[in-house]
Amino acid sequence: xxxxxxxxxxxxxxxxxxxxxxxxxxxxxxxxxxxxxxxxxxxxxxxxxxxxxxxxxxxxxxxxxxxxxxxxxxxxxxxxxxxxxxxxxxxxxxxxxxxxxxxxxxxxxxxxxxxxxxxxxxxxxxxxxxxxxxxxxxxxxxxxxxxxxxxxxxxxxxxxxxxxxxxxxxxxxxxxxxxxxxxxxxxxxxxxxxxxxxxxxxxxxxxxxxxxxxxxxxxxxxxxxxxxxxxxxxxxxxxxxxxxxxxxxxxxxxxxxxxxxxxxxxxxxxxxxxxxxxxxx
Length: 281
Fold this sequence. Notes:
The protein is α+β, with helices and mostly antiparallel strands.
């Protein structure tokens, strides 16, 4: 039996028997792991409040030969999402992080880049309420980067079908502004629920939704900068809404299932129906 320890993020729990839990947790060193936490519902000393989804903790667990589940012995909280005020929007965002990670990450496969991504967006999602109104910015950042890291995001600067640029500008300036193209030419980027990437107006098809110029620019900037770089910007609920819808559709298409947490956020209009122009059939 191998005794292991690692920094970990709790994703989901399931009750088994009277007080035991099955815990899915994402470790920095060993990837996503599932384990049995004996008497977890009774032992405050070994687990305390560390079993809440998206809690960052130090985990101690043991791998047993020919056993699919590890034995989870202890969790020690490093950072809890409940240590600061959590409203409905934040809770829904945390649930979506956990659901995407639990459904998409393979077991026992370390993903250091994704682990660091999650830590950075958690820090922005759970800041004090006086510092930010809602979690839409870190949520947008997480969805965009998870789509990219899973290999579901082709070059968003060019049409997936023909390779032509999707905008009037040809590059982003150091401050994230569009430069080098025709400023009079509006951005043209479209997406579908059934295919990866973005499309030009010619190849958008009859059921496409438009990604607004602001959302296209946000995506370009987010792929070049850390999440903290956007913390000072105003992020009302509608900003980046179509970008979140685009990335959620990509993830759901890959997972071949609907994300329940995304549906909750859709009812809050966080990932609601795109309000861009739809292509005519």
